Amino acid sequence: MVDYPDTRRCDVAEDLHGRTIADPYRWLEDPDSTETRDWVDRQNAFTSERLTALPERAWFTSLMNRIIRRPRAGVPSKRGGRYYVSRNDGSQDQDQIFVADTLQELRAGGRLILDPNTLSADGTTSIRGFQASKDGRYLSYQVSEGGSDWVDFKLLDPATGETDDDAAIQTKFGSATWLPDNASYLYPAVPHEGRADGSQAGQVKTGVLALHRVGRPESEDEVIVDVRDDYTQGFVFGEVSADHRYLVSYLVEGTENSNRLWVYRIDTDQGRSTLSEPIKLIDTAYAQFEFVRSVGSKITLFTDHQADRGRVVQVDLDAFERTGELVLEELIAESSDAVLAVTAAGDELIMIRLADAAPTITRYGLDGADRGAVDVEGGSITGLWAEAGEDEWFIGMSTVTSPTRAYRIGSGGGAVEPLDDLVPAGAAFDPPAYTQVRRRARSADGTEVPYFLITPGADAEPTGPRPTLLYGYGGFNIPVEADYRPMWSGWLAAGGVIAIANLRGGGEYGTAWYDGGRLANKQNVFDDFIAVGDHLVSSGVTSHDQLAIHGRSNGGLLVGATMTQRPDLAAVALPGVGVLDLLRFHKFTAGAAWTSDYGNPDDPDDFTIALAYSPLHNVAPADYPATLIMTGDHDDRVVPLHSHKFAATVQAAQQGSAPILTRIETQTGHGMGKPLALVAAENADLLAFAAHYTGLQVPPAEH
Cα(460)–Cα(500) distance, rounded to whole angstroms? Predict the structure, then answer.
């Protein structure tokens, strides 16, 4: 038995809907208390000692640094008449942003305009996004410290690189939407007291859509949309049509897959953009509606209304204002494949679908006529920039072992041009060859559950049993594809097999597939994952003693629920930044937004459903797999208390000899903006731990 660091138990318990629920580690919910900090230090020291002793760690550390440090570039965008792209030659902890007046200049190198590596000594300050005014005079960018979702708005002149001393706006989940006057922008303003630094665990309240005039103080910002009385955890976002005639505003409750949609006409008064009263095109959230483009009074929308896998429709705004009747004219009908995205490019509509979780791209005329497919290779789309009226658009594709490869596509003709020269020179990495096939398992209720099976070696037949890493997510209508993750290359290079599961709750197969894995149906997600794990064993790919399960965020919940329901399924469990306390998740940061998938624990029926699978509340004395729980002390999305309480609970309940470890990074958040050095170290530890306890043999470390 492992002698774990001591964790104090307290007598906290409360009556919830007639049930007494003990919470002996509630004191770990306070991230700033002296006792919690001491516990984190002791757990990290305990974990570090055991990870350092793993013989596989040195090999994976060397390998993951080579993989993480390979040169890369993002997908170009065209903003305010200039071209922008992110780049990293592998020597920088954070990607740099380059700008140029022409695409040729950008491909030749361009000019460095934003370098987040200069913003902090430890490389933990990152840039979350940037937006140029229509005339290119201003560039707004958002700065995150320590991986926090809170960002500070900054302003600079892209022609000179000089910063502008504008209002010190801080908000969450927001960016700037520039208005046509080029001197004002809209942003989601989320209320907070004082300066947020990412360690706050308090519940985030519903914000407003605010209008900021450059050069004016934040106190003068005008509230455009206010839904604070309508939503428990609401979000409001805006976008301006390419013809500058309309502001389209989305009003949504949390992470619901449905929204209200209001349209404002944009006018000009004495050089300033002004907005009309809202035209409440969709004022009841009964389906998903997304703006695509406008032509005169005709508004093109993507929707899943009366189309489980999505379709494109058109609305006459003038007619709606006259009659109040919403008439949806169908342009592109629903097909057998789920729509991932629809965007305007030049005088076309670009539709991205998922054909059995693999992306396809099709061009359409504005009348909905099919103009043919766009031939680009890859298992996942990593970025897309397109705009109505432009003569070109850009897309990025990845594979399991190769990060973004960018392409330029000519509007109207679909000619494809790779932009490989965007990637800077640096230390190359030759990714391992692999073979990818589709397999299907059968879940507890008989539903077929597809998954990608990825085996090391070109044209290799799966032979086993071999150590296998099974990954899943299954939530929030987010599709899981055969995409690039650095750890895939590391595991394949060591000779391991990968399985990527397409679980209900995801967005691979339309709204019904999503609905089949949320709320009262959430248990289906865990049953699907368990079915894939059992299928890998029964088909000879692996054995229970050679299987590792992994997931992050909602996928961390997936792993936590799976290991508590089936502790015999896998030898290793790797829950990262997971939602693990399903009775209190809604009380912290933006957790109340997730009731779309998990229900509201304050509701008796939702409480009963959540209690049945909540990982924290289903831990019982058992022989649990070797477990490495990962979180960050500045994770203000899924706060670290989930991982802390779960780690303490499983450590106390472990009846076997496999270790239960928790790895808590400091000055990092949910994962975004993490320095390359920390990404490499985390991946190396995760893979070394998985290899050691699944029996994956790695070569000796090179010295």
Answer: 18
